């Protein structure tokens, strides 16, 4: 059986993880996050495509590319979550289940981080649980795909 593909997309500045602001984002690097996702995917028997970009347009294109390719999208949109209607439109148009992840608890932070456009397109949002939020999102997405296949 072909393993279902889940796209794990990361937005701007997440390539800096672990290098600065460990008090906010912890000490794990983006490579560590990828390893966490690879291990979770092996355990869950799904395939992942893990990517990061600093470009809004590239992130929008990656979401579009998921159509007819992936079964779901786990996305940490980073700051584009707070600003990008283009990203929201892409997530709404792609017609796939979306789970939004934030490493930090955006609701305990500055007011401008409390709202994310992406949340309107998301089946669920995980924030404040550190990088383990990615593994939890993959678990939830796998459950959602299995539920869909059962129907
Ligand atoms: O908590 C999250 O995962 C965020 O999506 C991270 C974004 C931030 O804009 C969101 O409000 C919440 C920032 C990612 C940048 O991460 C850095 C890590 C280390 C040093 C500098 C930036």
UniProtKB/TrEMBL annotation:
Main EC class the enzyme belongs to: lyase
GO molecular function: 3-dehydroquinate dehydratase activity
Enzyme Commission numbers on file: 4.2.1.10
Pfam assignment, any one: DHquinase_II
Site (Transition state stabilizer): 20
Binding-site list for substrate: 76, 82, 89, 103-104, 113
GO biological process, one term: chorismate biosynthetic process
Family per similarity comment: Belongs to the type-II 3-dehydroquinase family.
Function: Catalyzes a trans-dehydration via an enolate intermediate.
HAMAP family noted in UniProt: AroQ
NCBIfam families, alphabetized: aroQ, PRK05395.1-2, PRK05395.1-3, PRK05395.1-4
Annotated protein name in UniProt: 3-dehydroquinate dehydratase
Species of origin: Gluconacetobacter tumulisoli
